C-alpha cells in the first residue's frame, strides 16, 4: 500500500507560479512511476505530467514548457513546478503512483492516488 499526500496548492494571480509537492509513504519504491493529474469543476480528471524512476518525463501538451515535474527519490517526493499559470489551470491537482510507467502515461489509471490539493488562478 502506498500513501500519497499533496501540498503546495493555493490561490495565485495569472502569470504567477506554484510548486506542488507529493510525499509518498508506505510500500513505496523509488522505481514507481509518479504522475500529476487535475480535475476542474464540471470536467473529467486529466493527465498533466509524469516522471519515471529514471526521471524520464512526459507532459500534456497544454502544460509543456510551463510545468516541470521532478522527483527526489531519497525523500520519496515528487514535485510539480508550475509557471506562467493561467485561469484555465484552476483545478484540484492529484498526485498518483504506479509501478508501471505505461499505466501512468498511457492508460492513466494509476493504482494509488493522493487526496488532491486545490489550485486556483485568478485573472
Structural commentary:
- This protein is about 5% helix and about 50% strand.
- The chain is mostly beta strands and about 120 residues long.
- It is globular and about 40 Å long.
- It has one helix spanning about 100-105, and strands at about 1-5, 10-15, 20-25, 35-40, 45-50, 55-60, 65-70, 75-80, 90-100, 110-115, 115-120.
- The protein contains one helix and eleven strands; from the N terminus they run E-E-E-E-E-E-E-E-E-H-E-E.
- Strands 2, 4, 5, 6, 9, 10 and 11 form a seven-stranded mixed sheet that branches. A four-stranded antiparallel sheet has the order 1-3-8-7, with no helix packed on it.
Q: In a few lines, what is going on in this structure?
A:
With 123 residues, the chain is mainly β. It is built from one helix and eleven strands. The termini are far apart.
pLDDT averaged residue by residue:
94
Helix coverage percent of residues? under 10%
Distance between the termini: 40 Å
Number of helices: 1
Q: What is the tally of beta strands?
A: 11
Radius of gyration: 13 Å
Percent of sequence in beta strands: over 45%
Query: Could you spell the SSE succession in H and E letters?
Result: EEEEEEEEEHEE
The assigned structural class equals mainly beta
What low-confidence regions span 5 or more consecutive residues with pLDDT below 50? none
Question: What is the fold's blueprint, element by element?
Answer:
Elements lengths: L1 E6 L2 E4 L4 E9 L6 E7 L6 E6 L5 E3 L7 E6 L4 E6 L8 E8 L2 H7 L4 E2 L3 E6 L1
